[in-house]
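ingest -> validate -> predict -> emit
validate: passed (alphabet ok, no gaps, 360 aa)
predict: started
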Amino acid sequence: MSDMTIGQPMAADLAPLPAVSLHRPRLPRWAPAALAVGAIAVATAIGLAAGLGNKVQWGLIAGALFIVATYAVTAFVEGRRQAKDRLATSLVWACFLLAVVPLVSLIWETVDRGSKVLDGRFLSHSMAGVLTIQPGGGVYHAIIGTLEQVGLATAIAAPIGLLTAVYLVEYGRGKLAKAVTFFVDVMTGIPSIVAGLFVLSFWIIMLDFSYSGFAGSMALAILMMPVVVRSTEEMLKLVPNELREASLALGVPKWRTILKVVLPTAIGGIATGVMLAVARIAGETAPIVLLVFGSQMINTDPFNGAQSSLPYYIYEQWAAGNAASYDRAWAAALVLIAFVMILNLVARGIARWKAPKSGR
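emit:
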């Protein structure tokens, strides 16, 4: 037995451990920007050398080079784990740019070409007495037609969609509710031309009514209805069951509970869904071409006679095939985009106004 006391640490155990750094090397903050500039320079050189005249191809090459270079450099400096993280981030940004660039390009092109003739005269005059090959004329009759047709479609589809959603959420049980849900899902994917053909065959051919703005409104209501049903249904499902149970526990009838508790709680989301559905149908062209038939005159009666609308006006002017009509088509497209944008802003405002207030 040696002199070393039992339990006393050996000399080898007392040797200091090697220092381990808790910080891994990291790329400087300017590295992504430098890699992006380098990828753009290399892509430009490749495009010029290969004779690629389309700048979009240059952008796609630059994006691919940036993603590959980011992964390689990050893996070399920071390790594979951090490189995978940067790769996922780069792919997300690339997909974001792929989605935003066409949208920005579309808006820029529409504003640039539509602003040439868009003024107060264009908004306050119709095409009555104006030849398509001549400048002048306006879109006033088409604005009236769009407002009346979309308004009638909303008056038809919004109550039906709201009541259908209330039935599915509050009362729907069994085979009938499943059948209604199935047909709502089917109607969501119906092409707009099919809705127009249905109204054409039933309203105009079978019942012998004339072409009118109301016929177009019925087709638009068919397209709008499933959107209203789905959005309202989801908003009603978000209402806590405790609110319903508290109202029923006080002896309030179910119909009054729905009317006074459930619907006011979800009214912000319901209004937003209706506005988004209106924005969706505002630009539909196929059913309008089939049913409204178009008019150069101002027709404020949607139930009698042909009537124009913004989508039909754009189609009509573009089909004319001359410089003046092209300018009017782009200006009408800009008006339609502004109309849809205003509806979306109104929907967001209603949602924020009716949203539950946070805090105490």
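The longest helix spans residues 80-114.
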